[in-house]
Design brief:
By secondary structure, the protein is α+β, with helices and mostly antiparallel strands. It contains 14 helices and 5 strands. Helices cover 52% and strands 13% of the residues. It has a 3-stranded antiparallel β-sheet with strand order 1-2-3, with no helix packed on it. Strands 4-5 form a two-stranded antiparallel ribbon. Helix 6 packs across helix 8 and helix 8 packs antiparallel against helix 11.
Length: 393
């Protein structure tokens, strides 16, 4: 039996079964609440939903946010002033924090110490005095400081007991608290990565964007320059550029000089990424429409092409920042980077360049710990942002 509908007679009007109601793009009547939530979500919201599934990246982001907030108030967080010397406690090892004394809860405290000198090795030995309980104070008055070099203050988050000591990370050869200097050094080591990547971003986007959009002889010259720069080993080039900075420069000029050096050497990879993206996007119809309407190249690149892969650029930046932090640390460690009185993690590590110092005073290597943690956190954050950059995968 034939189940097909009969064909209409020749010349007869065809029957239409399409609804004549106006099409509503936001109509979600046939969707579940979960589907409608995704359908109406913006690009940024979709990226956030995917990013927060990457637990390690979220934890890394919170950790880095706390560190960058901490550098704003490092004077308040540090137990001591950056330049405070405790001459009676030179090369004092880290103190342990205790909660109980003789079976009774006392709260966070440390035991006082007595120094003895080993006449054979001339090494200072510190012995805890169990009868000297020094309770740690919080939100207290301590060493005076200038907040960001502008406002006088003496309030600290944590302080030693009255007439006591609190060296949670030990002291250096001048009796300065290592923990306080690590907290102060974070301000330079962390900001130099952000300032350097901003400079690198500017060069990479402008040069790579022009090379990818226009092509031709300009693209050829840019690619040869990038190949030459990438073929030179990084550390010798850093050393050469850092060595030409005048020794008479102030610490602030040295800081900006190191930042410019790191930015000049890091833009090549970003420029190539931007160029490759623009080579593909410049053939799109909306680029041709913008050209026919008379838009300039700078507007087409800045308003139409770059925003199309900005999420990819942000992920690239988070991976590039650790390289700049390591570059500053390496230059300062080798004595060609920042110089005193500026304090960074690299400068702190110069205290541990001697094998004998490391053997007797290993806590001077503690500034290496925040460097490792920050590098790992930026890499994990970059992985999460790179995955979230394309939420439709």
């Amino acid at each position: 039996m034939n189940t097909h509908s009969p064909l209409p007679a020749p010349g007869a009007p065809l029957q239409h079964y399409v609804s004549t109601a106006p099409f509503d793009l936001q109509s979600v009547e046939a969707m579940t609440p979960e589907q409608s939530k995704v359908f109406q979500a913006s690009q940024l919201r979709l990226m956030w939903w995917k990013f927060r599934k990457h637990r390690v990246a979220v934890i890394s982001g919170i950790f880095l946010a706390a560190l960058y907030f901490g550098i704003l108030i490092c004077e308040f967080l540090a137990p001591y002033n950056l330049h405070t010397r405790n001459m009676d406690y030179i090369y004092s090892p880290p103190q342990r924090v205790h909660l109980f004394h003789d079976g009774q809860f006392v709260g966070p405290f440390v035991y006082g110490r007595q120094m003895t000198l080993d006449m054979d090795t001339l090494k200072r030995n510190y012995i805890e005095k169990k009868d000297d309980v020094q309770r740690i104070r919080f939100f207290c008055k301590g060493d005076s400081y200038q907040f960001w070099g502008l406002i006088e203050g003496d309030r600290h988050f944590v302080c030693p007991a009255e007439n006591g000591q609190l060296f949670l990370a030990g002291t250096d050869r001048l009796g300065r608290d290592v923990l306080s200097r690590i907290i102060y050094g974070a301000r330079i080591s962390l900001t130099i990565g952000l300032v350097g990547i901003s400079f690198s971003f500017l060069l990479g986007i402008v040069i790579g964007g022009l090379a990818g959009y226009h092509g031709g002889i300009f693209d050829l010259i840019v690619q040869r320059i990038i190949e030459v720069l990438q073929s030179i080993p990084s550390i010798p080039l850093w050393l050469a550029l850092a060595a030409i900075m005048p020794i008479t420069w102030s610490p602030i000029l040295i800081y900006f000089g190191i930042t410019v050096i790191l930015g000049l050497l890091d833009w090549t990879g970003l420029a190539r990424a931007v160029r490759s993206k623009l080579l593909a996007l410049r053939e799109e119809d909306y680029v041709l429409a913008a050209q026919l309407m008379g838009a300039k190249s700078s507007r087409i690149i800045g308003r139409h092409l770059i925003p199309g892969f900005m999420s990819h650029l942000i992920a690239t930046a988070t991976i590039s920042i650790p390289g700049m932090i390591l570059g500053e640390t390496a230059l300062s460690f080798l004595g060609l980077g920042l110089r005193a009185p500026i304090t960074s993690w690299g400068i702190l590590l110069t205290e541990a360049r001697s094998v004998s110092v490391i053997a007797f005073y290993p806590w001077l290597l503690l500034p290496m710990l925040p460097v490792i943690l920050v590098i790992m956190a930026f890499n994990f954050l970059g992985d999460g942002l790179r995955d979230a950059a394309d939420p439709y995968k």
